Amino acid sequence: MICGILGTIPEREDILETVIKNIYHQVDVLYVSLNKYTSVPVFFKDYSNVIVNLNYNNDLRDCERFLFLKDIGANDFIVSFDDDIIYPKNYVKRMKSASLLHKHAAIITVLGYSYRVDRTGKISNFRKHKRPCFRFQKGCPKLIKVDFCGSGTLFFRRKLIDIDKLVFLPGNSDLMISYYCKQNKISIFSINRDMSWLVPIMGNDHTDIYTERVNDMERQTQLINDMFFNERDNE
Asked: What is the pTM of this model?
């Protein structure tokens, strides 16, 4: 079974149904975490394979959708979605095919990147040291191994991730999954695709978590150095 996981906030309700319509038919079940909502939007009644939850921990923010892993079988597949992206009609099929190439033992992502450290073995700016970097709108010529993934563009077999061992980082679910892969020696591959295979959708809300990270550049850079480029952890 293929299970989708999506998290969203009230500020993006104006585009939410557009996103749901775009993805619900590509999965067997779509789990939706309504972060900060007090009631379920009426339109959800039209989607019989969507399971909505209002009761999860809102403090987890973008990490909250991964709590659904507790409800999903070990041999089922997980595909993650963001609430501000339009995915192509063949998205899940393509992601599963890429996963099969690695016998479902790796995580497939669209957004993927690695860092090139400086002479100190660290990075000085989390935005400028990405080499290579395949943003979700960008093309990628072939299936390429990366160290970091985008948490809203993932495909993997459920048993790859033990939710009890995840280090939850609210506002940093990309790092949460990437760090888990590093600690457990799970490979991440950015899928081959044409440019604009995924397309952003703009609503009334123009805030996003990435902007928060940019606005707190020093803290975000330090967090990455501590988690991924700590000499004691790499010995």
From this structure: 0.91
